[in-house]
Amino acid sequence: MSSTSPVLDVQPKPSLEFPDDPLKWEGWSKYKADNLYERLCLDPRAKPGDEQIQQHCTALLQWWQKKVRLKNQPNTPMTQLLGRGIDEAPQHLVQARMQLLDPARRREVDDELAAHAQQETLAEFSKYVAFSLARRVLTAEAEANLSEFGQRNGLTEEQTRACIEEELKRHKAKRVAPAPTPAPEAALGTEATAEAEKEFKYILRLSKLDLGDATLLVRRVFVTIAESMGINFERGEHLLEEYLDQAEFGSATPAPSIRDPRAHPPVPHAVQPAPAKPTPTAPAIPPVQPGMSSAAPARSPAEFVSPTGAAMVLIPAGEFVMGSDAHDAAPNEQPLTPVTLSEFYMSRHPVTNAEYEQFDPSHKRKRLSGAGPNHPVVYVSSLEALKYCQWLGQKDGKTYRLPTEAEWEYAARGADGRKYPWGNQEHRGDFANFADASTTFPWRDPKLHDGYPETSPIGAFPLGASVFGLEDMAGNVWEWCLDFYHPLPGVPKRNPRFGSVGAARVYRGGSWKSRFTNLRTKARSSDAANFASTDVGFRVACANDLIE
User: Fold this and answer.
1) Sheet holding 337-341, edge to edge
2) pLDDT per residue over 48-57, tens digit each?
3) How far apart are CA 541 and CA 269, in angstroms?
4) Residues 436, 375: Cα–Cα separation, whole Å
């Protein structure tokens, strides 16, 4: 009696029952990938054994076998989506299985992948170094942080050092020693320097420069003028930033000193009364945190409803330190930057399909499979999001816009330095929607379940609300901000918009595709302004000066 091949005997475990709908996962499309592990939906870092390789191959062959019947329906959308995979996938899958089960060939594959991963890590590290050299200087502290970050991500000390040296040459940057601490009795500068600064400020006023015109090139021109007048580079930049802040927002109030908020735990304040009729999933306005305004002006209601029915929540004025110096912080989250914000409004939830489709009914065809009207809208670029804000303002005369990056971070974390909107609790499936066990991403967390393989309805995670009662600030969908990406300045700012022009616009918060660590309130990411994806949406902010 002939025995059946072991491969055919192996039945896929429940975890290998891939979604029947190809729109719900991307693994099916990898059947021709150069990475043999990727063809079989395997993570090489997990070092899968022979049995697991066979199981995955069998499960994928069974998945494709179910699609063979579609060959008789060539004009259906599903058949056109799968394309030649119906005929070609089995051959490529079996080829991947055979090569990975050959020990010699597998060693070659692993070596190739390791070399490729090393190149990618170096390329990513080079970007972080470039961010840190935006001002063409590198302090000893910044270099130490970069080196630690590189080694934490698998690079050797020699590799990080070589990469930093290469970027220093490429950007024509230089290392600088820490500035000496001036003696207490020392004045800000000599009389001549004070006179030069006064003259430079006069030149800035005459220029009528505003934030919208202050491109990197224009900024460099003005800083060069300052240097030619005897003002050092950093002081010239500071005076320019101070002028731009005053030009856009008026005179700045005293800014907080830079400090690690985790070293100063908040002092409890009295709990404020909750709104008369809170929504079912929305917590009442929480206690006022240190650094926040103790009471909102009487003309500013705690909440109002936008023309599309979205709840707009008052975020009190306050101070906080933007960025992070934690051990797991990325270099682009530094240096720490003190920020002072006026009060503003922000929507309690991301903009939903139902809300956005009031603006653009044709967008309904872009919904994810299974996403209902109360799921966050996706496939929206930042340019489309800005048009939505403009349309919304025409409905009731208010000033709607995307939140600035500083406003978004403050609304997510408050003033007490919390790591996530809800606090510091790690790896919880009941706080946010992220890449959990129900997804097929190599970086998913196989031990946690949040209940949703893709986007979730807004308000599905009330335990994950921020200190101000905003929900879905972590996970579900990334959220566009108003700023274009620029390095954090490291000097006190009031109502900042860090970049009005640039190559990439910031989005924040992580998504259903993200690792848990990307849900941190301080994690920064960005992409082209016209970028749109299945996991990027937005929420709106509103100035408070028109609220009645």
Assistant:
1) 318-322, 337-341, 493-494
2) 999 999 999 9
3) 27
4) 18
Give the separation between CA 354 and CA 396, rounded to whole angstroms: 19
Here the tokens at position 434 are: 């992220």
What letter would DSSP give residue 22? G
Query: In angstroms, rounded to a whole number, what is the distance separating the alpha carbons of residues 7 and 93?
Result: 12
What are the pLDDT digits (tens) for 286-295?
A: 433 434 443 3
Question: Which residues 6+ apart lie within 8 Å of 384 measured at CB?
Answer: 360, 532
Which run of H or of E encompasses 541? strand 541-542
Instruction: Decide if 404 contacts 483 (C-beta within 8 A).
Output: yes
Beta bridge partners of 352: 376
Instruction: Please state the domain extents for the chain.
Output: 6-101, 105-176, 192-249, 289-422+433-548
Cα 324 to Cα 129: distance, rounded to the nearest angstrom: 17
Superfamily name with CATH number, domain 289-422+433-548: paralog of FGE (formylglycine-generating enzyme) (3.90.1580.10)
CB-based burial, 237-273: b 16+ in 10 Å, e otherwise: bbbbbbbbbebbbeeeeebbeeeebeeeebeeeeebe
- Joined together, the tokens standing for residue 197 give 């600064």
Cα-Cα-Cα-Cα torsion 529, 533, 535, 539, nearest 10 degrees, comes to: 40
Measured CA to CA, the distance from residue 510 to residue 525 in angstroms comes to 9
Confirm if 313 and 302 have CB atoms less than 8 A apart.
Answer: yes
> Amino acid letter at 121?
T
- Residue found under tokens 């196989």: 446
221, containing H or E segment: helix 216-228
State pLDDT tens for residues 133-185. Answer: 767 888 887 788 788 878 877 788 888 899 899 888 888 888 887 655 544 44
Reported as a single tens digit per residue, the pLDDT across 475-500 is 999 999 999 999 999 999 999 998 88
CA atoms of 506 and 482, how far apart (whole Å): 7
b/e map of 459-495 (b: 16 or more CB within 10 Å)?
bbbeebbbbbbbbbbbbbbbbbbbbbbbbbbbebbbb
In whole angstroms, give the CA distance from residue 296 to residue 316: 6
| Displacement of CA 539 from its chain's centroid (Å) | 14
